[in-house]
Amino acid sequence: MVKRALLLPLVVAGIGLPLCSAFARSDVEKGRDLAQRMCAACHMQPGQGEKTDHTGIPSFRAVASRPGQSVDGIASWLNVAPPTMPNHHLSHEQKVELAAFIMSLREGDR
After folding, report:
1. Nearest residue to 62 (alpha-carbon basis) of 90, 42, 91
2. pLDDT tens digits, 52-93
């Protein structure tokens, strides 16, 4: 079995691996659990979409559907999240799991 760390560059490069083959279902499930506990109040509201201005809060689906978005990009962004977001002190592994869940929500071409 190829390690997740070896597959990440392939996913980022857009080699056409579907998300579920690059990240274990357990990563997405762990990310979903994190999101429901810590992020749902702001990022998982019914009818929520992309933010409309600098004060808006995007849905996770909108974040995942941004052009060029990737698991690595989301996980990296979480390292420098804006001060308006709480710091949940996530480990690198938790950031990747959360990012894998967010990307599982992507609409359109993967």
Report:
1. 42
2. 777 688 999 999 999 999 999 999 999 988 888 888 899 999
- Whether the CB-CB separation of 30 and 22 falls below 8 Å is answered with no
- Give which of 31, 7, 22 is closest to 102, Cα–Cα: 31
Is the residue at 52 inside a domain? no
Q: Which two tokens stand for residue 80?
A: 């420098």
**Residues 6+ positions from 30 with CB-CB distance below 8 Å:** 94, 97, 101
- Cα angle 74-46-44, degrees, rounded to a multiple of 5: 30
Is 88 in a helix, a strand, or coil? coil
Nearest to 34 by CA among 107, 104, 79, 99: 99
> For residue 64, what are the domain limits?
4-14+24-45+57-104
